[in-house]
């Protein structure tokens, strides 16, 4: 009986693509071996008394061990809880406390974080090189190295907890730049269907991040960000070789791409920038592979650099609180600015997803290409709200729709452009100024590495934009002003959008998700 | 709230691909119009008191009206019951009686059949040209022409019966060549998921019947055969123009392909043969389009003729009692015999489907490329049995698996070859002789149009094969024997497989599903 539960995907991969490789740091196993190891992990957890509904914390880089644990959880009917180790400790404590995690699987290099989490869980199992030598960590808790934990599992059949597709599978936390992370529970059917629809959408269209049955996939998006945008699920589903980069630096990522024949990856724009910088440092002008990017706006300057380096891409739109919603799947391959712009912004809803632009009163705005409103999303894989936060649930999940908090425009051809977060948009003299549009323009200036535009309170206009740029020494304020003036003359920018101030800095502060930390910039500059 | 029900597919098509065409005989509408008409059909049925669980009989060729009704049924939570008008009347009576159909939508050219069915239903609505003038038909029943029926619907919103994906959506009858048709009930989730997985599988692989976002689809498989193998579902899902051929003859089908730019079709091998014959008669040597074929073995001779005519194909395996299970998705494009053979027979399970070859005792046979056993199939869209037939259910649906009644071989590379029906296979001296293998060899002989091999009772061996050929006058028994002897010499055939007799006839009898009627051949020749 097929139940539509997550571990059926790895089961089928072991059966149909048993010899296909899973590469993780120094380890090279097959899907058949990964399945056997996941069964052992499930049996070992079962022996510890872990079962249906128990929450399993996973604090790790993208490794084969973390991969296995995600499938082992499914067999037991347990709930996978991937944790973002880059978050501040107090947020991690909140997450583990809220999840009531019973067991924590943690990378041994993260011992100091684990020490603080250890009082909250019953068991700790060390991933990676083995148990931490530092016995100060996780005092008084049962401690095991994962490989010993596996080899201690009694042989036997796959645990069958009778799980069905409507049972909960995972607990995901947002990585909000302000406030506490919010939690969503997803069912097996959500975590099976949404990643598969990404794969199907990319297979059906002639597009930058097209997926075929010959690709080799390396997710640079961490598992704790919406299950690495589904890559560890659709790769075994499609029988594709999976390369898990562990702690690889951008330079090491380049070597992995070449050595393992990686043809497809996913990453946020910041990671793409770092990869391009590493290529530059390595004297490499070209690296042909496909990238699915998203999570924040892809500036045109970066898009154009990637394009020239041989990288073909599509942009995905979604988030922890809605999974995936839309992708750019433009057939344009030429590198003109219009095409790159479309390829970076013209989102097509993923099949089964509906999108709607709403006014502040909730009425639907016309698909005219210029009416800006909040983007609402409806899909089969929306969660039923934020765990334990009824008021946030009420304001975000309305009549089966999710209010994304993003500003967007609907075009007459059925595509959508997300312009900014509602809370990042600047209201000046009663009119919207969209920071992402300015940031994209600023990124075109030679020597500008990253650009951020934020609102500064203004007595007369309410708010006015200011720009903060991470740029090379060759860039000064007058270069920037000249470029923006030209954009005004060319009709690409309204004059009242011109920033009141331009700050040049060495680096922009980033959030743990690799996005520019605008909260911090507001504190410093506004 | 997205519920995963069938009519969401047409709703989304109207929203995303509203101007894409649906062509049906003399009618040309858009998906947006088809949605509006389906809403009207649902409202008109609602006004008649038809609602949740009521069964809707549809007796029609592939038309836009039948298409709309399939989606209207979904809105009401009613059950669509497509009826095979080619079946004998007593079987149709059995089907409508078993379904307890409340309303019958019938093509006006089928008035004589409808007369017999009319006492069984509450309402009759005429499709096609309008109501039958013959007032003998459907005496005493409310009679309406479909277009009047639609225009009588009160305006208003889409009916919402609160249907969910686990609710029943359709009632399908098998078209068994012997015995009464058996019935299966399928849920919305089955009829959404299975066709979409066909589309996704064909999109992901480089194969003959590859589907892209640019195709134009014309299903020659009738709606009453497993919903035309999903084509009227995945075409709107993908936003593809849909051409419904109505009563088009093979010659008219060729003209439709050319006039409407059809690039993708589905058909059984007999239809493919008729299309190639029509091309020959029209003096057309080439027609470039893609075909998904199946339903019976594709003989190598026919495969090769199609290939030479520019037709690229894949083979699908499935049936009314299991929906779809597997497809050939070979990347081979060259026309060598080995490649054509692989393209016709090496089946890869559709994602989420499991296949297993079992001995008569139910044990799994090895994937060694030669152990012949019964094919068992497991998938998320299996029905829960035959309606009202517990004993047939018990013998066919075992532990979540469906026993297909087909003989097959599993290959070491994970592919499967279906060799024949268990009941058609010939047991001679304790060994299997597979008619389909002989039939394929016989089809290679120039001038042989169709070949059938059946078993004849034999005192010494139990059974022996005999061959019946529909061939041109140029073919005689000695040509056939020479060809088979050569196959034995070349190691393609075991000597004991040589048929004991060869009969040459003008035409082979076909079932309503276009397969050779072996039951009738056995009566005449065995």
Automatic annotation (TrEMBL), chains A, B:
This is AMP-binding protein. Residues 438-515 form the AMP-binding enzyme C-terminal domain. It comes from Alicyclobacillus sendaiensis PA2. Residues 17-386 form the AMP-dependent synthetase/ligase domain. InterPro entries: AMP-bd_C, AMP-bd_C_sf, AMP-binding_CS, AMP-dep_synth/lig_dom, ANL_N_sf, ATP-dep_AMP-bd_enzyme.
